[in-house]
Amino acid sequence: MGLSEHIVMRELDIPAINDFSVYRQHDGWEAFADALRTKTPADVVNMVKEAGLRGRGGAGFPTGVKWGFLPKGVYPRYLLCNCDESEPGTFNNHQIIDRNPHQLIEGVAISAFAIESHTAFIYMRGEFAAAAITVERAIAQAYQAGFLGKNILGTGYDLDIYVHRGAGAYICGEETALMESLEGKIGQPRLKPPFPAVAGLYGKPTIINNVETLTNVPRILARGVAWYRSHGTEKSPGTKCFSLSGHVNRPGNYEIPFGVPLRELIESPEYGGGMRGGRPVKIIIPGGASAPWLTREHLDLPLDYESVAAAGSMLGSGAVIVLNDTVSAPHLAYKMDEFFKHESCGKCTPCREGTHWLVRVLHRMAEEGHAHPEDIPTLHGIYTQMAGNCFCLLGESAVMPIKSALRLFPQEFEAIVRQSQNGHAGKPRPAAAQHAIPLGLASRR
Amino acid sequence: MLLDTHASEIETILGRYASRRSAVLPLLYLAQDTYGHLNDAAIREVAAILDLPATDVFEVVGFYTLFYNRPVGTWVLQVCDDVPCCYLGAEELVAALKQSLGIQEEQTTPDGMFTLQRVKCLAACDRAPVLQANLDYVYDVTAERVEALLTHLRERAAEARKRGVSGRFAEDYAFGADGRPLRLEREAPYTPRVFTPVPPPPEPAPMAPPEAGTEAESGERRVSPL
């Protein structure tokens, strides 16, 4: 059951849509021109609200409602496009900016008009270096054609859009850390409130939306609310670009309506094409590294925000990582928490120290095969002290892999302890490292 | 000095922001490409251009992973070893690179050609294993493609020195049918990828990461330019 028409990944329907003239031939920039000529900013906000567009970056918050939080009469306002896509398994923004950049830029322009902003930044992770060149060229073409700059299409509306490259820090995808980074500082999150809508970039009212969210906007205006709502479910209208990766035959981005079962995404010949070599599914991470894990018993779960949440996980960014039975749960927890440890900004103690100690214990267990009976309660203790105590969601997210692994596969941790106690431990360890975790200050690696 | 060699570029960058400090990251990239890496003098020069205390800029260089405050090779190879790459051949890739280059992670070859690093997710999980060479993506780099890649990069050494390590002129690569790296045309129309089915593995590998060889099938996937 493929889409008859893609909303975001339109390169599948129109192969050269990354070319400015082709984008124009397919009504590109017409939604923006029409909005400038015939609509007020409030009209655009209402359309996006009625369409039920929800933020695709992870939280699923209604976009139009978010726009409505801006305080009245306070200017200038800024629009930021979050393209700091860095969470393991997440890669749809990368394809959008590579293959359909003009629609993103038109989406930024329409959204900036809707919130009465005259400056927008696309904050792109530093590793998207080639794609940054693509997007900058697309922006230059829009300026040349008169869709950006001063007095656009003679309507008196001015708008500048700039690409700002980060420099390698996952935390800058957190909205307030992104603003810190854009202000030239290290990417550490700010205390909320005040929320960005009230005091964001340079202390001014600021809206931050994800790439996929903004790329939806031109189609909502062009095709209308009813058409948009004819896709997906009542509470999650539209489509989602799922990034499918891991041990499937056809990893890739697949744009499907919300509500399609997980099994169909993994097994359909149009999408995942089944598991590599026919091996069984063991672990499914449905929404990026911070989503609690699912197992094969969840294969019939519909992929929408509510259903995945009801199953105890979250749809998040739509990064579906599917792993087979060769993957050990302690090792996966170790790799995931190593990611969070590496990306912890160091601002708050529970996250900085918690991820550090989780990784120390998990590395010893999963990589070296050495464990003590007290390791399992220690791991429970570390994540319990982190949960609810971290400054931002990064630390909270780091709880999920280890908590999931211990809940779903406790026997794998117990087996490592048992083998270790029986003297069947894996690799020899250096003498200095053979004791349980020392209390007090540890020397950081 | 950067203000002499890149005056108009710096002016353009400063023009984007309501605060000069916002130009720290772009100017550090510029300095890094001009001087090879960010030594103390380069960092102080950026601070002076932006009227910032040098400490503020040193702090930024220390925080972000794409700024190098010590000399690096002509090519900085950054291999993703995160989930899911680590279960799809990334460990084998790192091992093959270490073997071929004779260095460990965070080291540079004696000829100054390659620096090897492990990095976290590069947002190209569908093309695993993946690495970046001076921020040029190289997709589907299985261990058996390492020699072809290194040969290709050595041939492009002069170009790499001219472009710098910060990706300001980056391009992306995959492997062509002849097994050599192939530059992806960014203006080309989108072509959906072609997949060939993976046959069942000969022997189950119960522990992760899989032993070298069990993932060799992944190299069989035909790669078409994006």
Task: Write a brief structural summary.
The complex is a heterodimer of chains A (445) and B (226). By secondary structure, chain A is α/β, with parallel strands linked by helices.
Summary tags:
heterodimer, A: 445 residues, alpha/beta, Rossmann fold, Ubiquitin-like (UB roll), de novo design (two linked rop proteins), 3 domains, 4-stranded mixed beta sheet, 8 strands, 11% strand, disordered C terminus, B: 226 residues, alpha+beta, Arc Repressor Mutant, subunit A, Glutaredoxin, two-stranded antiparallel sheet, elongated
Topology at a glance:
The complex is a heterodimer of chains A (445) and B (226).
Chain A: H1 20-25, H2 30-38, H3 41-51, H4 63-67, E1 78-83, H5 92-99, H6 101-114, E2 119-124, H7 129-144, E3 160-165, H8 175-182, E4 206-210, H9 211-223, H10 225-229, E5 239-246, E6 252-257, H11 262-267, E7 281-285, H12 305-310, E8 319-324, H13 329-343, H14 349-367, H15 375-386, H16 393-408, H17 410-421
Parallel strand pairs in A: 1-2, 1-4, 2-3, 5-8
Antiparallel strand pairs in A: 5-6, 7-8
Helix pairs in contact in A: 2-6, 2-9, 3-6, 6-9, 13-14, 13-16, 14-15, 14-16, 15-16
Chain B: H1 2-5, H2 7-15, H3 24-35, H4 40-49, H5 54-63, E1 75-80, H6 90-101, E2 114-119, E3 131-133, E4 136-138, H7 146-155, H8 157-163, E5 173-175, E6 181-183
Parallel strand pairs in B: 1-2
Antiparallel strand pairs in B: 1-3, 3-4, 5-6
Question: Could you characterize the architecture of this molecule?
Answer:
The complex is a heterodimer of chains A (445) and B (226). By secondary structure, chain A is of the alpha/beta class. In chain A, 41% of the residues lie in helices and 11% in strands. In chain A, the strands form two sheets. A four-stranded parallel β-sheet of chain A has the order 3-2-1-4, sandwiched between helices. In chain A, strands 6-5-8-7 form a four-stranded mixed β-sheet, with no helix packed on it. In chain A, 57% of the residues are buried. Chain B is of the alpha+beta class and 226 residues long. Chain B is built from eight helices and six strands. Chain B has a four-stranded mixed β-sheet. The longest helix of chain B is centred in the first third of the chain and has 12 residues, at 24-35. The N and C termini of chain B lie far apart (40 Å). At the A-B interface, helix 5, helix 7, strand 3, strand 5 and strand 8 of A face helix 3 and helix 5 of B.
